[in-house]
Every structure is written in C-alpha cells, then in structure tokens.
Amino acid sequence: MGFLDVILGRSKPVRPDLDQLFALPSAAVTLQAGAGFTPTGLGSVCFASVEGGAFDRIREGVQELLDTDTGHGGVPVEFSRDDYGYTWLLARQPADAADGAATLVNDLHAVNSALQDGGFGSQLLCSLMGFRDAGQRSLALVYLYKRGTFYPFAPVAGGGDKRDNGLELQVRALLADDLRIEKDLGRWFPVWGAPGL
C-alpha cells in the first residue's frame, strides 16, 4: 500500500485464504457442544457464472472429481442457478459419519481451488456449510471468499425472509476462537434459499 492510498483512505483488499475452510470441522465440534447444532452433510459454493470452454472444462472436472469421491451412492453434486443468476454447487457427504464434516470441507476446498487455479477466483462469492439442531432450526456458516472471513446465517423457519439475529450473535461469540469471523455485520448477507441450508 502506498502513501497516497493511506492519505485517501484506501485499503488493500484481503487475499482469499482458502485454507480457512479447514477450520470448519473443529468449529462444528464447538458448535455442537455449545449450541447443539450438528452438520447436515450439505455444503455449497456460490459463484458468478461464466460462459466459455475453459470454465465448462473446470466445472466438468470438479463434478467428475466430487462424483467419484462419494461412496454413499447418492447424488453427490448438483448445480443450480438462483434468482440473481448466480450458480450454486451443492456437495453432499453422510451427516452421520465421524469424518463427514472434514470430507465435506475437502470437497468445498477442491471446488474453490479449482475455480481459483483456473483463473476464475474473481467469480467466487461464498461457500457455506449447513447445520441443524434438535428443534430443526437451520444454520449456515458462510465463508466470504473475497474477505477471507466467516459469518453465521440463521433463517427463521416458516418466517419468510426473517433471520434469527440472536442466534447469529450467539454463534459469533461461540466460534470467535475457531473461525476468522467477519467483524462488519453489514457484510453478513442473507443467503435465502441457498442449497445446503
């Protein structure tokens, strides 16, 4: 960062650190012990769609890698497009497996890495991992690619577009030692209807 940047108040953007995703399995243990939320075995990556052969080859490679990595016979990877035109890749792992959270994180990391290494890092928006508690409340831990931070997102079941802000703040405090939590609450964007939530 140069002298002029400091005077004009510009800041250097945070470089994405995909290895932050590997903190999710230990955060899952903390979340289960402290709030009763367990992983659902579902996680997703959101990115802006790009047209072209290079992107199609990366997408096919990612799907082939994750499809062959599954051992539970279900549909491991699904692509969908949301109302805003963003593409979501949904990955599945058995929720009851002891290492299911770690395997899911490996899948999410592989997708992000493949897109980043293929020159499409600027298209990556976020990744999320889904959780549920005994009362069937949903929670996602969302990783913001461009910020290198996480935030909790807790939609209210049947509440339309309402969030459980109290739960989100509780989870933020609970996971402060496990994850790099996004400090700017204005960046805790809602991901209504996200696959994996």
Would you give an account of this structure?
The protein has one domain (31-181). The protein has a six-stranded antiparallel β-sheet with strand order 2-3-1-4-5-6. The chain has helices spanning 3-8, 24-35, 53-69, 100-120, 165-174; strands spanning 38-48, 77-81, 86-92, 124-132, 138-144, 149-153. The chain is 34% helix and 22% strand. The longest helix has 21 residues, at 100-120. The protein has five helices and six strands, in the order ααβαββαβββα. It has 197 residues and is an alpha+beta fold. The N and C termini lie far apart (38 Å). Pfam families: PspAB. InterPro entries: PspAB-like.
Query: How many domain modules?
Result: 1
- List how many beta strands DSSP finds: 6
User: What is the distance, rounded to the nearest whole angstrom, between the alpha carbons of the first and last residues?
Assistant: 38 Å
Biggest sheet overview: 6 strands, antiparallel
Order of helices and strands: HHEHEEHEEEH
Backbone shape: globular
Which structural class fits the helix and strand makeup?
alpha+beta
- Roughly what percent helix? 25-40%
What is the average per-residue confidence, as pLDDT, rounded to a whole number?
85
What does the radius of gyration come to? 17 Å
Q: What percentage of the residues does DSSP assign to strands (E)? A: 15-25%
As an assembly, this protein is single chain
Widest β-sheet, arrangement of strands: 2-3-1-4-5-6
What low-confidence regions span 5 or more consecutive residues with pLDDT below 50?
none
Number of helices: 5
InterPro entries: PspAB-like
Pfam family, one: PspAB
